[in-house]
Amino acid sequence: MNPYLTDIIGSNVRVIKHSDPSMIGMEGKVVDERKNILTLETGNGEKILPKTSGILLINDQRINLDRIRFRPEDKMKKIRRKGWQ
């Protein structure tokens, strides 16, 4: 699964690096994705994770948050425009 090209809702994620130090180490399941935020279901309820500079770990893959900073429904347009296949 390539998270840059597919839907990440339902995936378990962990924040490895983030511009907000209080977000580092946050773990949870992605329940919603918008252009600039991810909503995670954690053990302490839902938390909002801004898609500012940072790195996530999804299924043992490191994902740069800046590269997924667009609406999930626009992923196909980005793929075609940039030639990702």
Provide mean pLDDT, rounded: 86
Beta-strand portion reads 35-45%
> Which parts are unreliable, with pLDDT below 50 for 5 consecutive residues or more?
none
Quickly count the helices. Answer: 1
Give the count of structural domains.
1
Helix content: under 10%
Within the CATH hierarchy, at the fold level, what is the topology? Answer: SH3 type barrels
Secondary-structure-derived class: mainly beta
Rounded radius of gyration (Å): 12 Å
Major beta sheet summary: 6 strands, antiparallel
Give the SSE order as H and E letters: EEEEEEH
Overall form: globular
CATH H level, superfamily name: Ribonuclease P/MRP, subunit p29
What's the CATH first level?
Answer: Mainly Beta
End-to-end separation in angstroms reads 13 Å
What strand line-up does the widest sheet have? Answer: 4-3-2-1-5-6
Number of strands: 6
Please give a structural write-up.
The chain is mainly beta and 85 residues long. It has one domain (12-78): SH3 type barrels (Roll). Helix content is 9%, strand content 41%. The chain has 1 helix and 6 strands; from the N terminus they run ββββββα. It has one helix spanning 75-82, and strands at 12-18, 27-33, 37-42, 45-50, 54-58, 61-64. Strands 4-3-2-1-5-6 form a 6-stranded antiparallel beta sheet, with no helix packed on it. A hairpin with an 8-residue loop joins strand 1 and strand 2 (27-33). The radius of gyration is 12 Å and the shape is globular. It starts with 11 loop residues before the first strand and ends with a helix.
